[in-house]
Design goal:
Strand content: 5-15%
Radius of gyration: 21 Å
Strand order of the largest sheet: 3-4-5-6
Helix content: 55-70%
CATH architecture of the largest domain: Roll
Order of helices and strands: HHHHEHEHEEEEHHHHHH
Largest sheet: 4 strands, antiparallel
Number of domains: 2
Distance between the termini: 36 Å
Number of strands: 6
Oligomer: single chain
Amino acid sequence: MSHGHIPGCRGWALTSEPHAELFRLTQQKDEDIDLAQAALVLARHAYPDLTVEPHLARLDGMAAAVRERLGPSLEPRRIVEEVNRQLYEVEGFRGNEREYYDPRNSYLNEVLDRKLGIPITLSLVYMEVGRRVLLPVLGVGLPGHFIVKVLTPAGDILLDPFQGGQELTEDDCQARLDRVYGGLVRLDKRMLLPVTKRQILVRILSNLKTIYLNQSEHDRALEVVEDLLVVEPSSLPDLRDRGLLFYRQNRFAEALSDLRKYLMLAHDAEDREPVKQTVRGIEAILSMIR
C-alpha cells in the first residue's frame, strides 16, 4: 500500500490510561528515548505486573562486567569483543531458531529472563549493553532480518546479535537476504542505514501483531495495535486494523469511528472498497440495535 503515515494525525491514538507511560517515553526526541525502558513498558499489555527496574538493573550489571574487563580501553573492536563475551559466553544469549514465532521472543523481559530472542530483540539487548559502555552502536533494519552497526574511526562494523555477535560483510548481508527472499532482493546501501528507536519499537510491535493475528488471538492483537498507535499515532494501517478488531469484539461504535477516519485519510488505499463494505455493514447493525 502506498499510504502509511499522515503527519499531524495524532488525535485518535490514546484510548486508555495504561498507554500514558508509553506515550510519555516515546513522544520525545528520538535520541532521548530510553529504548530498554520503552520496550519493557510495551510488554505490560502481556505482563500487567511487570516491574521495569530489575530488568534495567540486569542490563546495567552486564555492562558493569564488560567495563571491569575493559579497564580504560575505549577501542571499539576491543569493546565489541568484551560485549560478545559477556552476552554469548557468560550470559548465554542465543537466537530462538526452534520457536522463532513464540511471542515471548519479542518481549524484552522474557528475552532477558530466558536468554532467547529474535534478531530485533537480541539487537536491542546488544545496543543497550553497548550504550552503557560507550560503544557507538545503532540498529539496522534489513528486510526480514535485524542487525547492529558499530561506528568506528576506521569504518562501520556490522554485527549479527542473532548469531552470537558475528561480524558481517555486505556479502554476508546479501546471503541473509537470499535466505529470506530466495535471491529476489538485492542489498541496497540504504538498507544499511541506522533506524530510529521509534522504528525499532514499531517493528517489535508489528511482529507481535502479525503473530497474534496468525494465532487468531484477537484480544492480544488489539492490545498490540493500541500500543502501535501510541508509538506511531499517524499509522493508517494500524488505525484500520484497530477498527476491524473492534468490529470482531462487537464494539461497533468504536469500529465505525476508526474505519470512517481511515477512509477519510487513506485516499489511495487499495482496500477502500472492502473497508467501505464493512462500514456499511456496521451502520446496518447499529441502525437495528438503536
